[in-house]
Design brief:
The chain is 38% helix and 15% strand. By secondary structure, it is an alpha/beta fold. It has a single domain (18-205, 237-269), classed as 3-Layer(aba) Sandwich (Rossmann fold), CATH 3.40.50. The strands form two sheets. A seven-stranded parallel β-sheet has the order 5-2-1-6-7-8-9, sandwiched between helices. Strand 1 (18-22), helix 1 and strand 2 (42-47) form a beta-alpha-beta unit. Helix 1 packs across helix 7. The longest helix has 28 residues, at 122-149.
Amino acid sequence: MTAGAGSGAGRVAVAGRVAVITGASRGLGAGLALHFAGEGMHLGLCARHRPVLAARTRPTAHDGHVVSSEAPVLSAVDVTDLDALARFAATVVARFGRIDLWVNNAGLLGPIGPLAGPGAAPAEIARTVDVNVTGVLNGTAVFAEHVRAREGTGTLVNISSGAATNPYEGWAAYCASKAAVDQLTRVVALEEARHGLTAYAVSPGLVDTDMQVAIRAADRTSFPQVDRFRRAAAEHRFNSPAWVAEHILALAFGPERPATVIVRIPDQTVPSGLAG
């Protein structure tokens, strides 16, 4: 299912809401954080290396009063460490009172190349699966426990990929782990609906991050479909982080919710460099 087809899909009232983003030190995670802060949201941001985002919540009107500027909670957290992630969430709740939206964005591309052969890297494959699957399971569990323990609803967004359903030669670990993200999100959506949690596995489309740079640098022997990604870069066919952020906010707080758990962000209609 495609999310928020109209332009300005994310223009919903979110000032004063609280969001957590994992993998927020760079790329899509950092871009989401900047956009959310600009919309007046309070933020808990973590990554393996402590994020350095300087943005504060933009003061804005909400429910008839001005929401004061707040610096985000920033922490170095390995998402494969459940206890560390739970402590981070507790710090965010202690600061802002609750968490309304949790985005499991932390992820690794992993090794590029055939699963069998001399180039295979078992330790790197294991780490990719651990971060991409166990890390998402951990974040999901921590947020679900939080929503169960308080009044009201919450929205979980697990960042997935088109690779969850489309096989790519050379991406065994990445494709398998993103397929797992889709299925675990379906299960959690069933388990937690009665407790007020709505869950989505969101494919953001092509976003020009460090991961995309690594993909374009691959050779055709290891990754036969590399030219597709190189063409996208040459034609500037990317979704900007702001575009993805708007659609995630529409999913979480907009008046209409898709009936499906698996959601794809639509392609941006203008080059990402021209997007607001």
